[in-house]
Structure formats: structure tokens, C-alpha cells
Here is the input.
Amino acid sequence: MADAFPDAGVNSSLWVPLVPDMTCDRKDRHVLAVAIGAAATHLVTDNTRDFPVASRPHGVAVVKPDRFMRDQLASSPDLVVEAVESMSRRLKKPKQSPVQLAELMTVGEHWPALGDPVVIYPGPRRPRASKVLWHICGTQE
Here is the structure.
């Protein structure tokens, strides 16, 4: 996890003391505590049912991965492209280009599918990742 998400670590002193106060599903209280301790705005999970609205503190949205990515693409497409390009540089086994990663994301290879299949661009040149990601978002460059 540290290789894939180098900024994902949270010092335990920031979240361990919060666990007893969490009211979500018992087996997931540590997860919500980490989100709060890290001052996260979003907790991204397919398991939203274990985090009922009443258990969530103000300012922490619990969303599914596909919804999170769609929202990020709509609000900050350039940052998403940068993130996918960064992920591509870190991937070693198997090595994948940003375009390959974006294509996998559209069909649900790493999480539920983001939506429409990637447009097939005619000609010998493959599209840049930003074109693929813009298409997922349903916008034009």
C-alpha cells in the first residue's frame, strides 16, 4: 500500500484515541477514525452500508469509488490526469501506461466501472490519458 499510495499513511496517535467514539459498524470503526484523524473529506469504500449517515461526522463524505472518481473528474480533471500519470510511473508489475490505466478504470478493472467505454480513436496514435479521462467524464477537450 505504501508504494501505491505513498501519502496514505496516518500516524496512529491521530486516530487510535478516536476509535471508541465511532458509532459506525464495529468492525469498521478504525476506518472512520483514520479518516477523521487525517482530516479527510472523503472515505472511499464499496462498503457504504457500514457507515450510516448518523455515524458520519460533519465534513466526511462516505462514497463509492466510482462516484468519487466521477466527482473528481468533473471538478478537477487535470488533477485526476496527473494522479493517473503518477500511478503509471510507479507501476512495475505489470507496467501500464496512463492510457492503459484509464481504459482499465472505465471497465471496472480496479474498482466498479466508471462508465462509458473508452472511445476508440482512429489512426496510429493512441490518445493521451487526458482524452480518455475527459471522455469518461462525458466532456470534450
Q: What stands out?
A: The CA atoms of residues 9 and 60 lie 18 Å apart. Residues 77-90 form the longest helix (14 residues). Residues 116-141 have pLDDT under 50 and may be disordered. The chain has two domains: 12-63, 67-137.
